[in-house]
Specification:
13 strands; single chain; elongated; 49% helix; 4-stranded antiparallel sheet
């Protein structure tokens, strides 16, 4: 005989309190699970959207981030003279030799945090077309002036226009607010020469970004760095890939930690589902005996109790995903292990996270309902009917 799924669904309304508690437990676990994946995905998306495929960034080999990298002036001269580098109508290479430092700023929410200050060249607009001043003005390259990303202004009072930030023994005035997308939205920018002078870096920089004359020139640039003995200590990579790599360590750490916490929580939710289903089996012993006497097989009883448990968990999983989706409006900041500075990111939901979270919730229902379903399926018909 067919599995009596309708019978199981109709019985759900008789145990509203225990079912509501189980749904809430599963929803909470799925909410945490989804939130962790959204957080990890948000960091990935933020840094992966930083930079361009048309740009090549050059850093010293083995440096985990720009902070730990030094590119010398002679390497800069060789790299910018390569024929694959795009040039202005005047023949100047479109490049930006960027010193990168980290400073401390007071947060609006209290305490201090690290903020990346990047020195950029006059070609920054050509290298990063998304860059634009949205308030105030651009910095004067002859003065100790900075522009701050919009996210910095929101989180640090010292990043607002008119503020003065003290570092390297000087006061730097914030004269504008900019947006550029990705991880650049967590930085402050100033003139590269001013920053090198303030930190006495001579003609060195942390990284050198070059614009390709065309995207197909990338293999030739990479080959030059492999074959030229003067460039072998340095690594050339597309700017987009470089910043995507920067997210991997942090995103993986958050993902592993979050999944560990979720697995611990899921044990409680699975136990809750199991208790609910054991209660259902105990309360419907006579009904199970009746179904068996009507000709329903053991596997039908097993399937119906498993389906009931998985249905309860599915409702909880859907509720958890809906609650987690509201986090898409929230932005957080955390320390980037590679740059040792704060990065702002949002919770990013994806179809993969939705599907994975729902499957995770249903799996809890399957595990929680399996043993009670086995017990129901093995129930002796005579003993079950005697329970009346």
């Amino acid at each position: 005989m067919a599995v009596p799924y309708l019978y199981a669904i109709q019985n759900l309304r008789h145990r509203k309190t225990t079912i509501a508690a189980t749904v809430a437990g599963v929803a909470l676990v799925v909410f945490v699970f989804s939130a962790v994946l959204m957080m990890s995905n948000g960091i990935d998306s933020t840094l992966a959207s930083t930079g361009s495929e048309d740009n090549v960034i050059i850093t010293r080999k083995g440096a985990n981030g720009e902070i730990a990298s030094i590119v010398t002036g002679d390497v800069r001269a060789i790299a910018t003279s390569l024929p694959q580098v795009a040039r202005t109508p005047e023949g100047e290479p479109i490049a930006s030799a960027e010193p990168v430092v980290v400073i401390n700023l007071n947060k609006a929410s209290g305490g201090m945090s690290n903020v990346t200050v990047r020195g950029v060249s006059s070609h920054v607009s050509a290298l990063r077309p998304g860059f634009r001043i949205i308030r105030g003005r651009a910095f004067n390259p002859a003065l100790r002036e900075l522009v701050a990303a919009e996210e910095i202004v929101k989180r640090f009072p010292g990043g607002d226009i008119g503020s003065k930030v003290k570092f390297a023994g000087d006061l730097w005035e914030v004269v504008g607010t900019f947006e550029c997308g990705g991880g650049f939205n967590s930085e402050m920018w100033g003139d590269a020469d001013q920053l090198r002078s303030a930190f006495q870096r001579g003609n060195t920089c942390s990284s050198l970004t070059l614009k390709l004359d065309r995207r197909e020139s990338l293999p030739a640039i990479l080959r030059a760095f492999d074959e030229d003995v003067r460039l072998k200590q340095f690594e050339a990579i597309t700017e987009k890939e470089y910043f995507a790599r920067q997210s991997q360590e942090l995103a993986t750490f958050i993902r592993i930690l979050g999944i560990f916490v979720t697995v611990v929580f899921s044990a409680g939710a699975t136990l809750g589902a199991m208790i609910t289903m054991y209660g259902a089996v105990a309360g419907r012993t006579v009904e199970i005996g009746t179904l068996r006497s009507l000709g329903f097989r053991r596997r039908s009883i097993l399937a119906v109790f498993l389906a009931e448990s998985m249905l309860i968990s599915l409702v909880g999983a859907l509720l958890g995903v809906v609650l987690a989706s509201s986090l898409s409006l929230v932005k957080l900041s955390t320390m980037n292990f590679n740059s040792f500075s704060e990065i702002v990111f949002g919770f990013t939901l994806s179809p993969g996270i939705v599907i994975g979270s729902i499957l995770f919730g249903v799996a809890m229902g399957f595990l929680g309902g399996f043993l009670p379903a086995i017990r129901a399926a093995r129930m002796n018909i005579i003993n079950a009917l005697r329970a009346a």
